[in-house]
Write a structure and sequence with these properties.
- The structure is a single chain.
- With about 220 residues, this protein is mostly beta strands.
- The chain has 2 domains: about 80 residues, Immunoglobulin-like; about 110 residues.
- Strands 9, 10, 11, 12, 13, 14, 15, 16 and 17 form a 9-stranded antiparallel beta sheet that branches. The protein has a 4-stranded antiparallel beta sheet with strand order 1-3-6-5, with no helix packed on it.
- A hairpin with a 2-residue loop joins strand 7 and strand 8.
- The chain is flat, with a radius of gyration of 23 Å.
């Protein structure tokens, strides 16, 4: 830094300013949430020392950031339940980016009900939908990837429920068992009010010190 009293002159105290750190923020937020609300966590990734701030422009979207907002961090998000039939919207401001969030209203959906089916592994899958929210999903699976193996029957009932949008839904959840842990990613689509199909994948499986990535998608079908 040239801190002299005229251009080309220096004060001689050796003062300097370091180049500003290049801060690139990576954060995601839900675009649509269900009418029952709930809680989740948002992960913000950025280089150490990069500052950030968060805010919400509506009272039904409440953020709980860590006390020190430098570098990567986890942000709590709580969504209040909606009792009205109409949708409502708000905006989350995270690290300088705006994320619009739409909350579904308390109204019946075309796919509400109990669904039961079978995967391509001839194992059961079942889920329950109410007012366009996937309240619970039960899946039986057996997956081997590399040196990793994960199997069992799991039920996902997250606080912030997956929602049906444009005749489809997606749900991701982590499961643990005696053979290891796995991340399950389930996709579904509705061909009619009584017919659904989709796939599930296991993008990450761990067993002891082994970490294995990816498997081929496994198909499923279900009816109501």
């Amino acid at each position: 830094m040239n801190d002299g009293d005229a251009p080309g002159k220096r004060s001689g105290d050796g003062a300097f300013s370091a180049a500003r750190q290049d801060c690139v923020y990576d954060v995601s937020a839900p675009a649509v949430v269900g009418r029952s609300g709930g809680a989740t966590r948002l992960d913000l990734t950025v280089a150490d020392g990069c500052p950030w701030d968060v805010s919400s422009d509506v009272p039904f979207l409440r953020l709980d950031p860590p006390p020190i907002r430098l570098g990567s961090g986890s942000i709590g998000l709580a969504v209040d339940a909606s009792s009205g039939p109409a949708e409502r919207t708000g905006t989350l401001n995270l690290a300088g980016a705006a994320f619009p969030v739409r909350q579904l209203g308390d109204a019946a959906g075309p796919y509400d009900g109990n669904w039961n089916g079978e995967t391509a592994q001839q194992r059961p899958i079942a889920f329950r939908i109410d007012r366009n929210e996937v309240l619970s999903l039960t899946l039986s699976f057996d997956v081997s990837v590399g040196f990793c193996h994960a199997a069992g029957t799991v039920t996902s009932e997250p606080s912030l429920k997956p929602v049906v949008q444009a005749s489809a839904f997606q749900s991701s959840f982590l499961v643990s068992g005696p053979t290891g842990s796995a991340l399950l990613d389930v996709h579904g689509a509705f061909a009619s009010a009584a017919s659904a199909s989709g796939t599930f994948g296991v993008p990450l499986v761990t067993a002891g010190s082994n970490v294995c990535l990816g498997n081929d998608a496994i198909a499923w079908t279900a009816s109501k």
